[in-house]
Amino acid sequence: MTSVPSTVGIVASGEDVLNDAVFWVDAGLSSVSSGALTNLGTGGSALNAVFGNSTSVDSFDPALLTHTGTNYLYLPGVAGNHASTTNNSAYRATSSVSCRFVVSLANWTPSASAFLGGLYEGSTGQRSYLCAINLTDGRPMMFMSSDGVSAATSIFATQAPTVSPNGYLAIRCDWLAAGPTVRFYTKQISDNAYDDVVNDAGWTQLGSDRTASVPVSLHQSTAPLYCAGYSTASGTEMAFRASAFKIDGVLQFAADFTAGITSGAQTTFTESSANAATVTINRATSGRKSVAVAQPILLFGTDDYLEVVDNDLLDFGAGNSFTVLAALRAWGNPSSNTALVSKVNFGSLPSAGWQLYWNGTTLAPKIVVSDGTVLPNVGSNTTLSSGAIGVIGVARDVTADLLRTYTNTVQGSTTTDTTTGSLANALPLRIGTRADSVAQTSDFELVAAAVWRRALNANEIATIVNRYT
């Protein structure tokens, strides 16, 4: 290989190092415009990252989850994503039940019902009550069953609430055996959403009482209590800030997602009533997953990716060092060798290019580079902790003729770089899937990704790790 002099030095901060990258996207700093994430690096707008392969944001693109200081639970509207707790006799409605939520929907007139929660499990014949936002018109509704098995009665509010897209609103659905009656309420929320849902004051009835077909009793279900979403059905994408249930006039369950979520790595927290039940954040087995949002992130699922059009700044010659790093959170074992940051035809190797990907089914980095003839690759055995944000990447150092992997500040495996030709190609750079195919996607939460046209040293990488972890 041809060696070039290294100009790498020890710099003051991760921000300094990142400002030297040709490509840098950050979930908390990059803005979204025309379906593209702004490149913060020196390569400028030519390296903006388009969501998926479309020119505008759609449901198949990574979800940019913003954070303005208040933690919340995000549900992507995919079956299997919900928050729940184990059954308790206190949740079984006898004379009344009051279900209260603070919720934000991307679309308040959804194409599918947005399920909020309740004591209801149709697959086991344990239906009792379930609250939702009706499809197409945004009216709150309750499903109710008197025997647990029969198809539940659907009771709708007589009018829809007034709320802007992505706006938050407190929603209350009450069933009263006396009557029998169902009433719906809304409330504009303050900064403390938990106080809003628990407090009996300030609610405005939405429409009129509903009495037709209202059951006089509800099944005493042994199903889990779903306090955000519903287990077996997919609904509209929802972000819950808080949820509380007042049952038979006594506070029996009060899940405060704002206070209960203290980090994005959480899968459980304790609700605030005297029962002190454990709330579990359940994640689906495929597609996008439930997320405890405690900082801005980009959520990737089954077919989500970012794409940057081919550019010379992302193509490397025989004599070019480079570094690729990604700050992310992943859960469990990934699918084998799935791509994270890719600019190579991985399905037809050897072909010129490079790719950062998972080392087999472990949360450890692996790199392949190819000049079309040889393809040195190396995978680290040092893994990220499942559910924890970490930084992984690789540095190609042409001075030392080495490829070095990094997991946080730990330098992992190295291998000799035996390429002698250019790594350049006409493929796009993709984050979350292969450059040549969308058949191999990764499931993770991205905080940031960056590419430098030089090999960072260990001290510089440490500043990036300190910046993001």
For the record, the count of structural domains works out to: 2
CATH top level class name of the largest domain: Mainly Beta
Uncertain spans = 1-11
Q: What would CATH call the architecture of the largest domain?
A: Sandwich
How would you describe this structure to a colleague?
- The protein has about 475 residues and is mostly beta strands.
- The protein has 2 domains: about 15-65 and about 300-469, Sandwich (Jelly Rolls), CATH 2.60.120; about 70-290, Jelly Rolls, CATH 2.60.120.
- The chain has helices at about 15-20, 195-200, 255-260, 460-469, and strands spanning about 25, 30-35, 35, 50, 65, 70-75, 80-85, 95-105, 115-120, 125-135, 140-145, 155, 170-175, 180-185, 205, 225-230, 240-245, 250-255, 270, 280, 290-295, 295-300, 305-310, 320-330, 340-345, 355-360, 365-370, 375-380, 390-395, 400-405, 410-415, 430, 445-450.
- The strands form 4 sheets. A 9-stranded antiparallel β-sheet has the order 2-3-4-23-32-25-26-27-28, with no helix packed on it. Strands 1, 5, 22, 24, 29, 30, 31 and 33 form an 8-stranded antiparallel β-sheet that branches. Strands 6, 8, 13, 14, 15, 17, 18 and 21 form an 8-stranded antiparallel β-sheet that branches.
- Residues about 1-10 have low confidence and may be disordered.
